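Before relying on records like the one below, remember that each one covers exactly one chain. Contacts with other chains, cofactors or solvent are not represented anywhere in the record.
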Amino acid sequence: MKSTKLALAVGVALGTINLLGTSTAFAQESNADNLEVIEVKGLRASTKANLNEKRFANAVVDSITAEDIGQFPDKNVAESLSRIPGITIDRTFGEGQGVTIRGVQPDQNLTLINGQAVGTGQWFVLSDAARNFNFEILASEMVAGLEVYKSAQADIDEGALGGTVILRTRKPMDLDANTIQFSTEMQYNDISEEFDPSVSGLYSWKNDEETFGVLASVSYQKRSVLRETNEDFGWFGPTIPRIDPLIEAPQGASEKGALPWGMGSALFQQDRARVGFDINAQWRPTDDLDLNLHYLSSTLEADNVNSNLIGIGFRGIAYVGADTNAGTVSNGVVESLQVRGYDARPGWARHIAYDNIYREGSEMSTEILDFEGNYTLSSGTLHWQIGTTTGKGDNRDFFTEFWVDANDPRANFDFYNPGGAAPAIDFTTASPWLQNPTDQMWLGGIFDQANKTEDKENYLQFDYTHEVDLGAITEIKSGVKLRDRSFSQNRNRTSLSNLAPVGEGSLGPASDFWSGDILTVEHSNTNGFAASYFNPDRDAMYQALYAVAECGADTTVLCRNTDVFLRDASFEIEEDITALYVMANFNSDGLRGNIGLRYVETDSTSNGFDLVSGQAVSFNNEYKEWLPSLNVAYDLNEDLVLRFAASRVLTRPAPFQLAPAVNLTPETSSGSAGNPELQPLTANQFEAGLEYYFADTSIVSATMFKKDINDFIFTKTVAKEINGQQINQLRTPENGGSTTIDGIEFQIQHVMDNGVGAYFNYTYTDVGDAVIDEAVAVTDEQGNIVGATLSERSVRFPNTSKDSYNLGVFYETASYSARLNYNYRSEYFIAAAEIGDNFRDEQAQMDAQFSYNINENITLKLEALNLTNEIWENYYERNTDGLRLGGTQSSNGRRFYVGANFRF
């Protein structure tokens, strides 16, 4: 089948040449003749170049260009994208990761490098395989510029609901021969209190005839991450519908209230090292032929350990008022609780756990090998690209868990939750033994697992642009693209059978595994209480796991199961995609733009294993779509541009969303599951805007947009038993019917002749709730399920902030420049949970930059990120009365940079 598609591709391309004659340049460069030539150097020059590209683009486009070689505006490309109207980003680990465009979450947008897909992976084992590019992996020094296409074009890959980000790398013919750039800097984080170095360099050469050139760049960055988290593990109540099987309902239980299953005091520590290479060889044997071979490689090593002391209030007091547990309830919420071990009550549930998860060897990488050519004929240009890209994620997960003996009177904690909005655990009453452990906690949970993911795409593309004189139509462009993409995940685990959580049958008391060191979590920026607890010896626990004898067929005592393949978490998604398109560019009397049609066939197969039988299963899904698009720009005068765009777009579900598999974290009773029955999203979208360029670096603009979405995907959190394990928070994706996104983007920017500049942009996004039919169980008087009925339920579109804005000022002279930026996004919906919807709270961040030019070759740089020391916080909105219930809070701290850039 693939050979047939390849023959079709070649036939269409050659047939188009024969019919139309010849053509000009490839997809995103069709307007190159309209662009002014600008030497980009410095803040004002890059600002001018950005507006110049926006002004003359046929589509709705925003762009960012480097201020100079190796000087992209921010350390992280996603951070720069967040300055663009309509774009917000995720900073879960303090650095930009995913990009949300016009309210559409990251895995429903596209990121391309030089017009092609880029394979990506995740270093974090709890991150499910997605299509979105993780911007943590790419050094900003490798990027020359980028464009964000918010409206669709027939010649750009389908797959984006919000927009498409196209990153551009440099080519040797664009630079002077023997160009050298080198930069070095030091970073400081005020939580980790560590200094971390980074360096980057570029060398570009071309011969005197300018027919052959080679460019090579390399970057290295080290970063120490320390994150403090006050963490919840999902809410229950006030009726507490599921009682933990270990809990015997206490006598005298009276008033009931909602509370988290557990709360943790967590410390995340990570050592990152990012290494990147970018090599580009360009050959122009004639004026008509331009060939380019490009190789990019980037690897992020991400060793980390997460320590979490967890008080499980739900297990400790399933009901307030139990014998030795005192607490208060207000408005159906537990506001305070004292949980105490009780030696006179055998069988009481274990209510304190201490987890340490060591992820040494975790990393993610991406690699691209691309061959591109442009051949100019008598009246046009043939463009082709053939290549492969692979993204990999390697996740090690050595999990250890200590448990208290619930009958030990020393096993105590206090839970506080004033008003229901600020839950936290205080372990002060247990602090003596947490800092000097003996036999109060036992190593009763342990496994060692390896998780490998791979995202690979092979592609072949032909484009042919024919210059014509058909009235207003100046070019007709057609093309074909074949993609063969696969996503896979394989997980193996070594674990113990017949391991007791405490006492005899466990691996031993905490005193056997104490390193002698103490961990301290300040929680100065969260609701959590400062806590200090013992730091276990990782090597001693690892040796204890592998010292246990292997299990036999009939072993009934403690034994080891080594390197077992976990079918439940392993899968492969295969996609064959064929796309054909034709697009006409037109330009006449101030009216310009393009109209096109893209046809796409997708053949998808989801392979995995049945969760009950363990047998291999496979799900097939094939769909075809016609995707028309129209982009129109009308120059009302030389400074005023009116725009309109309309298109139909397609977005495919994320790989793990399609997988017949689960990623479970039994120790926190949570996980995620795929849904191979998911359908792709489609949308009809429209936008209209007006742009006033009152100077070459100044603009006032407003754009209205609308997206009518079908089959959008949202996350639902449910409780489910999987292979005998009760998972209280299982995140599952579902199609959510139809909804709409309406919004407006406003932008104003002005740079004065004295070097002072300011900008402000604001985006309002309104998302309509979708109504779906949901099956609801019908029970008899004894509580037995006797049937089901359909009930209407409203669901929300995820990741959409209603309000977002950027406000910035800068000043630049020939000697120095200074910039201050404030970024804000309002709260947004994450997932539907049983107690109510889960949200991420509003977020804001202020950053500052300063640079000083010692001479034309050397620049000193200072930068500060997150000056406001913002945290991110999740919360719940109870569905019975809208009450806000507090959740997880996390603090990443401020980051400071000092460095220098050298150019020759």
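The helical segments are 2-20, 43-56, 77-81, 313-316, 431-435, 538-547.
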